[in-house]
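re the bet — no i am not wrong, look at it urself. input seq straight from the record:
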Amino acid sequence: MSLDKAALESLRLDRDPNPKRYQESGAGRLRWRIAAVVAVVVVAVVAWKFLNSPVPVRTAVVEAPAGSSDGAVLNASGYVVARRLATVSSKVTGRIDEVLFEEGASVQQGQVLARLDPSTTRAQYDVESRALEAARSSLAEIEVRLDDARRTLARNTTLFESKLVSQSVLDASRAEVAALEARLAAARAEVRVSQSRVALAQQGMDDLAIRAPFSGVVISKDAQPGETVSPISAGGGFTRTGIATIVDMESREIEVDVNEAYINRVYDGQTVAAVLDAYPDWNIPGHVISIVPTADRQKATVRVRIAFDQLDPRILPDMGIKVRFLEDAGNATAGHPMIPANAVVRDGAATAAWVVRDGKVEKRVVELGEDDAQRFPVLRGLEGGESVVIDPPRRLRDGAAVELEGA
């Protein structure tokens, strides 16, 4: 059977008359493919590095809750003080004759604590008493003479009416009566002056007894018999200005200095729990009496006075004490962690914060209270001491690595 040559020719493949040009075209396409693959790999690496490289952020620590588990919104330390405390001295200068107390003794108001030497004052009292006696004797003499002069005047008046005596005799009797009446008035005044001097001398005698100005406890004995005491400093330091220091134990209270940055957590009548350094396991209830309306510019503190709900003999003046200002049950934001306002992320009605932990961030939904223009109380979602991102970048994602700016 003969082959159809025309049909065979139709099956022949046309070959490039220039094989070198074909080889060059194939190599070019290969290079473009390799370049495209390399570009894709580079873009992928750059994108991976961008997405997985630490994001520089700034953080802030969530402020620990002002309240603790027992409801405290603020802690402070101070001292037990007595509002009524006096250094007792004498009203006059004198030498101490006897001291009638010891340290720690309880005394009542008006009780004699000491007596001064009365020798000079008693002598002065005796002089004034004798002067009063003399004035009274002189007064009695004048009264007797005046009675006699009045009787004489009455007789002379009768005789004059009977023309038995002259006018001059009657006038003399009248003058005598007037003179004695004047002397009587002067004598009576002198008696009153003497009485006042005796009373003054008696007061001087009473002032020799040094008495307690109020009921309390003697905490210091500052003088001994034989020493000189004076209400003013004198004698170059050898004269005592006081014999004792008395404390009214019913006036004990607490004074603490509160940093002015936290004074807004304290208010009148606020309940407190106090613990003496000497009795660390004893909780003493109390309440705020007042906030002294001035600040100490050197220490940036405000003084707060606190009263004990019930006094106890173990509470002594000048003892160190720690105070916890307790949370008001009606204050919904007290005792919660505080977060800066610029750390809050809002997504519609929801609020969240980026929490940094182990170099990575976690977006956590939080429930906030009312802000104070700079901070929010966190009612739920955060704890004190955690780090949160402030002014978070838009590219933050859950689990993203972060680094602190400037670190």
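see?? The mean pLDDT is 83. told u. also The CA atoms of residues 312 and 393 lie 59 Å apart. so pay up
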